[in-house]
Amino acid sequence: MSALPEYRSFDVTVQNFIAHVQFSRPESLNSMNKDFWLELPRCLRDIEASTDARVVVISSTGKHFSAGMDLAVFSDPSGAPMGGDPGRMAENLRRVVLQLQDCLSVLEQVRIPVLAAIQGGCIGGALDLVCAADSRYCTEDAFFTIKETPLGMTADVGTLQRLPKLMPQGLVRELAYTGRKFGAQEAAEQGLVNSVYGNTHDMLAAVMGIAADIAANSPLAVMGCKEMLNYSRDHSVEDSLKYMATWQAGMFRPDDMMLTFQAQAKKEQAQYPDLMPIKELFES
């Protein structure tokens, strides 16, 4: 396991197979500035490739989880220039949006589960982010909003694609068309969050406990669950069952099951080998 680099937007610790990524710009309401977008996918890939983490917990600091997109990202002339030939400007903006989408899709693409712990406001782009997590938890004061609509634009980084898979279609449409805030209780009742906690301390303690339960299981089995659940969400039951059979034929080995049975016989916790490290192609 190698040391992680330092990041401008996050504080990252790895302990007991749990990586804790904590947004660290409360003075700016943890807005998603240029550094954030550059660092988030790199951070998660670094955790996956360079640590023994088996689960990631994303949390925040200050009053709010995140105020969402820092509009300076779009005003940066190196990113999305708003002048010049309309065709070339449109092509460039499309590419910028695709890159932003990729930055959040990495939460689904990494092979380990990602849990989001949310306090206060989860606004605009921050909602895009947590929709890409495996599971979400929040405090009683948390609220969510598809803020892009009241600002005069259509949300474009994942909420409109992922939220209807998490909540009823009609409600998502209402939230998108109006941009109204919806609170923790409604989010829990409608399935966006798993649990609601009285304060940030209690929420983090509980989420870390859930993360520890995940990390105690075979990392190969957990990875298979994430792969299958993501695939099944986007495919038919029949296609998903066929993929499951093919996956099991290639990936299933009895070694971890034997470790489980042996540990149970001794009334101990099984100690599973880590997954093989991810390496870049042609890495020196």
Automatic annotation (TrEMBL):
Its main location: other. Its EC number is 4.2.1.17. CDD domains: crotonase-like (cd06558). GO terms for cellular component: cytoplasm. It is an enzyme of class 4 (lyase). It is found in: Peroxisome. Pathway: Lipid metabolism; fatty acid beta-oxidation. GO terms for molecular function: enoyl-CoA hydratase activity; isomerase activity. Keywords: Acetylation, Fatty acid metabolism, Isomerase, Lipid metabolism, Lyase, Peroxisome. One of its GO terms (biological process) is fatty acid beta-oxidation. Signal peptide: none annotated. Gene3D superfamilies: 2-enoyl-CoA Hydratase, Chain A, domain 1, Lyase 2-enoyl-coa Hydratase, Chain A, domain 2. PANTHER family: ENOYL-COA HYDRATASE (PTHR43149). Belongs to the enoyl-CoA hydratase/isomerase family. This is Enoyl-CoA hydratase/isomerase, putative. It comes from Alcanivorax borkumensis (strain ATCC 700651 / DSM 11573 / NCIMB 13689 / SK2).
